[in-house]
Amino acid sequence: MPNLSEQYKILNFKEFGDERGNLVVIEGDGLDVPFDIKRVFYMYGSDPDIVRGQHANRTSEFVLINVAGTSKVRLDNGYEETVVNLDKPRMGLYISTMVWKDMYDFSPDSVLLVLSNEHYDDSEYIRDYDHYKKELGISK
User: Which residues pair with 41 in a beta bridge?
Assistant: First the structure.
């Protein structure tokens, strides 16, 4: 049984600030993000009662960053689950492959930025939780 705590990691990015404001630096290729960044997308305008994600990925890894506002991410590996509160723009959540993820409880000003190691490929998404558990070899 995999240990969920080994399938995600909280990242704290460098932040520089002075009288002009703050600057957060995020670099790929293993410097700040543990992969080469091939895709960037973001979500905004989601109501607090909306649940986004609801899938696992066979090959994609992700880093989620609430660059504005807050949201929560529920992670599930079929055996255990945890919830991470994304509430700082310099905080990232690394998620490895084959972890089920739900994003929810978005604040009105939430902008959730996502970095990925893969270009979009619909065939590597698992969108049915029972099928996800079956792929993991977990019986109902």
Answer: 114
As a whole number of angstroms, the distance between CA 117 and CA 132 comes to: 21
| Structure-token match 């919830």, residue found | 83
pLDDT, tens digit (0-9, with 9 covering 90-100), for 41-58: 999 999 889 999 999 999
Active site residue 55: yes
| Token pair recorded at residue 117 | 């190691």
CA–CA dist 107, 68 (Å, integer) = 9
Q: Which residues contact 39 (CB under 8 A, 6 or more apart)?
A: 115, 116, 118, 119, 120
The rounded distance, in Å, linking the Cα atoms of 60 and 20 is 36
Instruction: Find out whether 33 and 107 touch, Cβ atoms under 8 Å.
Output: no
Amino acid letter, residue 37 = I
Q: What are phi and psi of 4, to 5 degrees?
A: -55, -35
Q: Which element (helix H / strand E) includes 130?
A: helix 129-135
40: tokens are: 């960037």
The one catalytic residue among 34, 44, 55, 68 = 55
Residues of the chain short of pLDDT 70, as ranges, are 1, 140
